[in-house]
Amino acid sequence: MPSTRLTLIKNSQQNFRTAVLFNPRESDDKIAAILTLAKNKLRIRATRIFVEGGNEISSSDELANVLQNDRKLFISGGEDYIGLLKEHPSAEEAAFTPAPATITNIAYESHVEPDAFAQLKQTAILKGMRYVFGMPDLHPGNTYPIGATFVTEDMIYPALIGDDIGCGMVLYSTRLSVSSFKPQRAAERLRGIEGPWDGPIKEVMERAGVESTEFDATALGTIGGGNHFAELQQFTEILDPDEFARANLSADRVYLLVHSGSRRLGGSILAAHTAKHGHAGLEPSSPEGQSYLRKHDNACKWARLNREVIARRVMERLNAGDDVVEGGKGKKVEKVLDLWHNNMERKEWGSEGETKKQVWVHRKGAAPSDRGLVMIPGSRGACSYLVMPVGDQKENDFYLVCGLRFSRLPDDHARARKWSLMPNAVIFHEGYSLAHGAGRKWTRTFALSRQHRCTSQQMRTTSLGSVVICEDEELLYEEQPDAYKEITDIITDLTANRRIAKVVAILSPLLTYKLRKK
Predict the structure, then answer these.
(1) Do the annotations mark residue 341 as ligand-binding?
(2) For a pLDDT cut of 70, what percent of the chain falls above it?
């Protein structure tokens, strides 16, 4: 059998495609051969194959039935088939296509990949979309970008916020003093927090107002994989002593930052939605919309409780605090902040003199800017920044450049003279949002390809001298500090460039817990 010409298309970013010649006789496992080709050519962790229309190819026989010259195969990293995206609608379709939403990019110092901009633009044409905001930590996701906020009217889009509903961060003070804290000794004591929590699950869920789910016994109180972590930190620089004092913070104490979400619960909710509706939106008032919102809200509560239980387990191992699930009765343990950055909420939208509208703010990797202090962590080898949103985030000058809005362009920007700049004074918001972290710079596949540059043991100590607990070597390399953007660029965009936040204090990592093998 001669070789067959195929076009392999990245399911989530369809501008990524490659032509290959595939000879079925060269491999017994034809599915594995196609996935290997896709991994090498598209640089993704390929796990699923679809043909146009959405039928999944799961066996060599099914593949043999569809093999023909110029066949398009959609390669997925695990997500469902999203359909062929049309780059140029027909005249009839264009006549009924609403004007795209306003896209605002607030990244200047921070580098943003073209793929992330492409995904951002794709969301602007969704029905009911009014505003799309790219944060400084914007980077490509599987289908939609991460580090973004989407504002819709009369529609909600579960797929925009993804499967980790309620993911966020909580910051606690602990009873540990910086002067006596020994990271290596603490690392030895942090064991036994991978498996299911053996605490009073039913009791704490009832107290927190969280409905029971099928995942409570196995997942509540667990960190999970990916970029989730529990990190012990210390304040190393205080830039706003007044705000620092108002928050009752102390430079002498160790603080615990936990980043996690709703684990498999959120994934099950999104899977049920996409199985029935795909990536389509829902009317919030419809039965389907109300059903999703109830599940969403419960998943957010579940995720918040999950972070509290994780903090409790860590503190128990280190004798670092009281029962944080009980509310921290001890005088030395306090919750500084607890914020979701993957969720949707209803807000009033509109400027003075305008009729207020009810809109839905979808955050995918974006921290809320209307709830006080925000923690913006860097990579595990970089500092974290405690910031306070400033101003009303409404009135700003912007420049319209290639269809994207920028808050300012410096005089020395090399390309500024080539662009047609149109300054306008308007009133708008940044989606009530700030960046939620550093944002990925490298794909996980690319990060793994650089394993030869240092040993796993070297990866377990950062340039800041902090200790990293991660017994999954693949995850250790995927989450290496170099895989993330410079956190200082993110902060500069929010403070000096955009002026929507001020730095209160800077924290340095002491110990980062990601994963131990059971």
Answers:
(1) yes
(2) 86
User: What is the Cα–Cα distance from 232 to 300, expressed in whole angstroms?
Assistant: 24
Instruction: Tell whether the model's pLDDT for residue 388 goes beyond 90.
Output: yes
Specify whether 279 is catalytic: no
pLDDT given at position 451: 80
> In this predicted model, what pLDDT tens digit does every residue of 49-104 receive, in sequence order?
999 878 889 888 888 888 888 889 999 877 777 765 544 445 544 444 556 788 99
230 is in an annotated binding site: yes
So what's the pLDDT on residue 65? 87
**What is the SS3 assignment for 207?**
helix
Pairing mode of beta strands 357-364, 335-340: unpaired
Whether 420 has a pLDDT exceeding 80, the answer reads no
Q: Measured between alpha carbons, how far is 339 from 368 in angstroms, rounded to an integer?
A: 7
Q: Which CATH class is domain 4-76?
A: alpha beta
Catalytic hit among 273, 296, 429, 436 = 436
Q: Could you tell me if 257 and 377 are in contact, meaning their C-beta atoms sit under 8 angstroms apart?
A: yes
- Delimit the domains of the chain by residue range: 4-76, 167-515
Tell me the backbone φ, ψ of residue 276, rounded to 5 degrees. Answer: -100, -35
Q: Considering only 78-82, 151-155, 499-503, which range has the smallest mean pLDDT?
A: 78-82
Annotated binding residue 228: yes
- 3-state SS of 43-73 is CCCCCEEEECCCCEECCHHHHHHHCCCCEEE
Using the structure block, give the residue that is written with the tokens 């959405």: 54
Q: Is 314 exposed, middle or buried (0-12, 13-18, 19+ CB in 10 A)?
A: buried
Q: Which amino acid is at 308?
A: E
Tokens read off for 242: 């007044």
Average pLDDT, the chain: 86
C-alpha 219/C-alpha 225 separation (Å) is 12
277 is in an annotated binding site: no
Helix residue spans in 333-440 (DSSP H): none
Whole-number pLDDT of residue 42: 81
Is 227 labelled as part of a ligand binding site? yes
| The CATH number, out of the four listed (3.30.230.10, 3.90.1860.10, 3.30.1120.10, 3.40.50.2020), of the domain defined by the range 167-515 | 3.90.1860.10
